[in-house]
Amino acid sequence: MALVTPLSADHDLETKELAEFFNETLGFCPNSVLTMQRRPAISKAFINLNKAVMANEGRVTSALKRMIAWVSSNATGCRYCQAHAIRAAERYGAEQEQLDNIWEYRTHSAFSEAERAALDFSLAASQVPNAVDATIKKRLYDHWDEGEIVEMLGVISLFGYLNRWNDSMGTDIEKGAVESGNKYLGKHGYEVGKHDGSVY
Asked: Where does the Carboxymuconolactone decarboxylase-like domain start and stop, copy by copy (predicted)?
């Protein structure tokens, strides 16, 4: 069970209306949002930030944004966000070969050099201490413009928040996210860990 119990989706009608965004993204409203709405200003601000960060304004596709989120969540160890990110990547059209081989993005032929640069950026930016350096910058500028780099860092930063929120909260993971996590990440030892509803 999570540190704080999620509230009903009907608790705050403004949050409920904004949260319809997640029905497309994940197929359900995440328990993290249902917990955040104990302070509706937080849930509403989070959803609006999420929508802004995930909007496509350049060549950074919805699928790539979700794979960036997965790399970030994998780097920080948040099992809840790993499953959500891979599920969203699947729902937003990531290639099957990429989903099946996300762990090997650095070497697998399903990933382009531009995608590798973006995913390495996500890994470096998600580490503590931060590992973004001149080499990462050069690789990014070889493939992406400054607006696209801002979009990528928006995703990484959003998931920095989510990784801290959900890992600290021990947010109970939803069935659909478990299914996607097991399907694409299970062969590498994915487990829901503290998010199975029984830790706290």
From this structure: 40-120
Report how many helices (DSSP H) and strands (DSSP E) the chain contains, helices first: 11, 0
Q: Which two tokens stand for residue 169?
A: 């909260």
Tokens of 29: 């409203």
Place of tokens 């998931």: 159
Pull the structure tokens for residue 142: 């070889």
How many CB atoms within 10 Å of residue 62?
17
- The predicted model scores a pTM of 0.95
Taking CA atoms, 107 is separated from 3, 125, 132, 177, 186, in Å, by 39, 20, 20, 26, 20
Q: Buried (b) or exposed (e) across 172-190, using 16+ Cβ within 10 A?
A: bbbeebbebbebbbeeeeb
The type of residue at 189 is G
